[in-house]
């Protein structure tokens, strides 16, 4: 027990380089956590694993109208969860393919589908084969959870299978959100009300700021009677200028700057913003 405590404390005082360890796979590899996240997805009033369902309904409506989604539009939903976007878009006539790391969420999305135009796949969108598409969605600020290398890799993979006049809708954490973040450390029995494990555990939540390049790390250490595990959740915060340059390097150009993926007006002081980008001439 003393050795376990020593190892945990030593990890906490060691600050890794941004994106050097961890990633989404740490979160999605645990069956209990997958079920907890699915419950958050499906609760219409909770904006945790996804935004609340009222916002999603507005967002789907805006996507259909503003981005011209209709009969036969090929949509790629990256990190689709249980199909909260994919299924209503398919019901509207689009042919939608969703990819997500969570087998539990993919099963739920498949079961909830009311159209054979929606298909779902358990996979990592950084490595899984991507289908041809007219519109790609990367929603809930998943873009900033990846390292700069993986962001560039994903954009190049998406662009390679996107129609010449296709579009990508993506939302991002802003530099203003980062300015409000505070470092800290919390230790609690059954941290987050049992989110991390079905039985007894002690959880540690540590927030670390990296002022340059405006990256935040939420590190969770979960100590159960029979095991200890760590989850690293990274979040990059990009200015509009940084994001525009990053997409340009991957062969995209920004066509619309929005306040969110439901078409709100861009607010330079808000914690999030959204972009519509399209491939530059090949």
Labels describing this entry:
Rossmann fold, 282 residues, alpha/beta, 11 strands, globular, 4-stranded antiparallel sheet
Structural features, described:
- 33% of the residues lie in helices and 29% in strands.
- It has 282 residues and is α/β, with parallel strands linked by helices.
- The protein folds into two domains: 2-24 and 177-236, no CATH class; 34-174 and 240-279, Rossmann fold (3-Layer(aba) Sandwich).
- The longest helix has 14 residues, at 53-66.
- It is globular and about 60 Å long.
- The chain starts with a helix and ends with a strand.
The value of Rg in angstroms is: 19 Å
SS class: alpha/beta
- Ends apart, CA distance between termini: 59 Å
CATH second-level architecture of the largest domain? 3-Layer(aba) Sandwich
Order of helices and strands: HHHHEHEHEEHEHEHEEEHEE
The CATH topology of the largest domain is given as: Rossmann fold
Strand content: 25-35%
> Briefly, what CATH class of the largest domain?
Alpha Beta
Based on Cα principal axes, name the global outline.
Answer: globular
Q: Which consecutive residue ranges, at least 5 long each, have pLDDT under 50?
A: none
Q: Got a strand count?
A: 11
